[in-house]
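At this stage, I wrote out one protein's amino acid sequence and its backbone structure tokens, and that material follows here:
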Amino acid sequence: MHAAWLVGTEHLNAEHAGEICVFEIDAAAIGPTSRARAGIKAHGDPRLLTDMAEVEILFDASRPHTWTAIWGRARPSSAAKASPSDTSSSPSTTRSS
């Protein structure tokens, strides 16, 4: 698995354990197109609800690419984009929101 999470620190309260999952990609989900999960994981934080989505990424996620996370008062969202140096795939973007 390859993943990036913004996690709660729990230093003020053990319930502050939720995370924003920018992306999670299992090795079996990588191919000419790939699948990733993104969203919110409550992990016992009563202020949050787990809300994850699986999205198709329109390129091979084993190739160089970048991720972006955007959040605020609205739901967080993340997006992947193939790197311009990656000549084997198109610069397609997939967004989860």
